[in-house]
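Sample entry as discussed:
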Amino acid sequence: MNDKSPEQRVLDGSSWDEFCDALKEAGKIIRSDKAPQDAFNQAEGYRYLTRLLRGGLESFLEFGDPAYPVLRSGAHETIKLGADNPDNRYESCSVNPQYDYRLSGSRGTVDYLGFGAVINKYSSGGTMETTGYLDSMDMEINADGHFEIIISQREHPGNWLPMGPETNSINVRQTFQDRLNEIPAKLTIERIGASDDRPSPLTPQKLDFALQRAAMFVNGSAQLFEDWAESFLPHQNQLPPADQAYCQSIGGDPNIYYFHSAWKLAEDEVFVIDAPDIPECQTWNFQLDNWWMESLDYRYHKIHVNKHTAHYNDDGSVRVVVAHSDPGHPNWIETCGHDQGTMCWRWIGAKRHPDLEARVMKLKDLV
């Protein structure tokens, strides 16, 4: 048992050495037996670890004080994890359930806006249990679009997001259908009753704790989604419903029904998904991910489609075609140089969750 104080651990270098050792250990996850072993996918895997590290350091070191919370985007164009949704703006902050908080802002015109209070254990167990959830459709919002939410364990009138005794994070999802034209919500959060408007300087305790948690986050997240990707292999190139309870246990939105799987295509093959029955819903989308469950680079490639952007057949059904080169189909999803990976389909805000029809076929046979 290590009985050194944080001051001693910082002074003798233990904090830093253990941090570096833990990062080295994370490299073994990228080299897992069932993970792709080619240089291209391995390079993406090591980049993935650097992205997780940036996210972990921001979360625990730079923005980890629950007494002075700051909503920050922890998953975006260059930090990706867990089949991050290209239609989403993700924001989160650390909280302490012993405090009460006020989240305020303007609604904007973004299609979907949801707030979750969670127990985030990505750094210590690989789960993210939701302890309270609030959908903007169920909120009181002023005529000018402004609103306030009280976040606390004790119930409050109006917009209230309940925390539990172990809640440690607030997650916000903004989901766009037309990202270029919809206006995002602008949000801020503050601790109610704060007597000082600025945190204290960094301490050895804070540094020691943050380095440990950031390293645990890298290892825990990488292992969690490596294991999940491997679990898709028995139904590769199919797209069945995911285990919804498991999706919720690792941070899924309670308003979403998920389909997850793995895909692998030869150069002359395409993966065809038919959705013959589109239910009434807030929105839906499909996205292509790499093996590490990172969305492919949607800044420069068309790697996803949603309710707004999709081309529909005359009968209202939808066909999506994943192909290495343009097959001449309006719902073409690019593979961006990949020949394998993972994928996700979501029904968002739907009361029915129809199955999908998926199959691999030769590009020459695509009609």
About this structure: Helices lie at 6-11, 14-30, 39-62, 204-231, 244-249. The chain is about 20% helix and 30% strand. The mean pLDDT is 96.
